[in-house]
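Database export, one record per block. Field names are fixed; values are copied verbatim from the stored entry.
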Amino acid sequence: MSYIDDPQTQKANLDYIRTSMDAPYLEKENELALARRWKEDGDERALHRLVSAYTRLAISMAMKFKHYGLPIGDLIQEGNIGLMEAAKRFDPDRELRFSTYASWWIRASIQDYILRNWSIVRTGSTSAQKSLFFNLRRLRARIEKQKESEGLNDNDRLKIAKELGVKPAEVEAMEGRLSGADQSLNATLGEDGEQDWQSLLADKAPTPEEIVTDMKDAQTRSRWLARALDDLNERERTIIRERHLGEEAVTLETLGEQLGISKERVRQIEKKAMEKMKHSIEDNTDTINDLPF
């Protein structure tokens, strides 16, 4: 997959990159002082100077991921989001260089954006799968260079799987994902263009005949149930309705409190009522397989 910005966007990106690269570097003492002013005093001018000095990090990191085919401007902005998050979390008292700390946040933000937007199908959820997505090309190129031939065999995939902590099947699946791209279901097939991909998808929805049959079956079961309930006394009907016919089943203890009996007595009445209903239905039909209890 690839994405090419229009000329106006390309010019805007280049102007932004040039401006960011011209920002002066900060000495360690200076950046720590700015970080303290931002953290302790909420000085936004200090934050602006700190972030502006290291926007080049976001740009540099974004360039490393440009081969994933996403707009470079979007990658840079995602890197800037990571940069702002780093500034928010940075602790100047740890005496760590801000650039070192920010690099992790920038990379994480860009990688998360790529995983969310590279394909409409979710690419990976675990850290191992994410590592596979971002390292498979590099490892594949290294292996192909060593054996001086293209393509991976099962042993190659096993090596990659062990190195990244995933299953060989996941390596093979990701290899297929990276070699292709998302396709529209409306894309035509063949030279005549009279058929598209979605026309080949199986429709799992019920047919009109199945819908009508299900409706009739549901009506029949409702009649069975109503007739069986009529054979119960008032307390038995209450227990069956509360325990089986409501959106949420009422507990035996709650019903016992409502009826003034123990929960064990409620259980006994419920069991007896269920038996009476089954006998009632058996007397009125040949099968009870479709009854929902």
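Remark 1: The first strand starts at residue 188 and ends at 189.
Remark 2: The chain has 13 helices and two strands.
End of record.
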